[in-house]
Design a protein that fits this description.
The protein is built from ten helices and ten strands. The chain has 331 residues and is an alpha+beta fold. It has two domains: 2-109, 2-Layer Sandwich (Phosphorylase Kinase, domain 1), CATH 3.30.200; 116-327, Aminoglycoside phosphotransferase (APH), C-terminal lobe (Aminoglycoside 3'-phosphotransferase, Chain: A, domain 2, Alpha-Beta Complex), CATH 3.90.1200.10. It has a six-stranded antiparallel beta sheet with strand order 1-2-3-4-6-5, with helices on both faces. Strands 7-10 form a two-stranded antiparallel ribbon. It has a two-stranded antiparallel ribbon with strand order 8-9. A hairpin with a 6-residue loop joins strand 8 and strand 9 (224-225). Helix 3 (116-126) packs across helix 7 (237-255). The termini are far apart. The mean pLDDT is 94.
């Protein structure tokens, strides 16, 4: 943790930036770097009463993919009110602005609270499911709000999902995580699923786009979604199956038994279908196509080099089982 004196340029930028109802004192500020693929920090006043989170550009105007993504996330926060995401008790953090001259791509009000990963850890290691199930119900309700924003009706295309599988296959091959048999099987699965995906129509929804456990906090009995950089119009399964895939990973990584996630996955989907509520056609589509999107989530996670090679290969094998098992379900 770093200390910024009252005259530090970043401290001055925050005083100039923050709105009148969010006063920033002329005093020392604590800067705490947060885990992220980019520079992100929590900045807290000396008395701890006021805190913000800042995401930083490497350079401005944006010239890299990461900087362009951050610029896009700021635009998503600006659109959040139009999309109905600022109603009620704060589904997302409050946007406070940005200061490109200080490399601040955006500043949001800090949200304090445990994330979904904490509840997953307790469920995996101690069998404490009550807290996890409660948070999954809240998360399902939040995603239902995202997915029911009024949008111009456009049909879902299977092509983005098929393209993403091809991208993952290339990346995993480059990481030497696919055997020749894996390559062939994944190609065959793509061909086999293409028609199946097309047979179950849906309309595009507003998707969070990065539904990983650390992107959802649970303060004061509510749920708040962080990181809107991948917010987009997409198939709802990019969110739902990502959560399911992350739960399968949580049990597989922490216990060696990914099948232990099944009751939590079932509870999450049931909570989502109640929150909409969903009709029979949508329910059937979600359960029929979830194995394909969930396999994408598992293959995506397998790219992470902080995981052991043995476990990454196990994720590839689990994704193959998911794809094959999903196709065996009756239409």
């Amino acid at each position: 943790m770093n200390r910024l004196n009252r005259d530090h340029p970043l401290n001055q930028a925050l005083r100039d930036l923050l709105p009148g109802d969010f006063p920033w004192p002329r005093a020392e500020v604590l800067l705490e770097p947060l885990p992220s693929s980019r520079q992100v920090a929590r900045l807290t006043t000396g008395n701890g009463e006021v805190a913000v989170v800042g995401k930083f550009f490497c350079a401005y105007p944006p010239a890299t993919d990461k900087d362009r993504s951050l610029d896009g996330e700021y635009g998503n926060y600006l659109r959040a009110e139009v999309l109905g995401l600022t109603q009620g008790a704060g589904l997302i953090p409050r946007l406070l602005g940005r200061s490109p001259q200080a490399r601040l791509g955006l500043v949001v009000e800090a949200v304090s609270g445990p994330d979904l990963d904490q509840a997953l850890a307790l469920a995996c290691r101690r069998g404490e499911n009550d807290q996890l199930f409660c948070r999954l119900e809240k998360l399902a309700g939040l995603l239902a709000v995202f997915h029911t924003r009024p949008l111009p009706e456009q049909p879902v295309s299977p092509q983005p999902a098929l393209d993403y599988l091809a991208k993952l296959r290339r990346q995993l091959r480059g990481l030497s995580l696919l055997t020749a048999e894996d390559e062939q099987v994944l190609q065959e699965e793509a061909a086999a699923w293409a028609g199946r995906l097309a047979r179950f129509p849906d309309h595009l929804v507003l998707a969070h786009g990065d539904a990983t456990p650390t992107n959802f906090l649970f303060p004061d009995g509510r749920v708040v979604a962080l990181d809107l950089e991948r917010l987009r119009y997409a198939d709802r399964l990019w969110d739902l199956s990502w959560v399911a895939g992350e739960m399968k990973h949580a049990w597989g990584w922490r216990t060696g038994h990914p099948e232990g996630a099944e009751s939590a996955i079932g509870h999450f989907f049931a909570s989502y279908l109640r929150a909409l509520p969903a009709d029979a056609a949508l329910t059937r589509r979600i359960f029929t196509l979830n194995p394909f999107y969930m396999a994408l989530a598992e293959l995506r996670i397998a790219r992470n080099d902080y995981l052991s090679r043995h476990y990454r290969l196990a994720l590839v094998a689990e994704a193959r089982r998911c794809l094959a098992g999903g196709r065996s379900l009756s239409l």
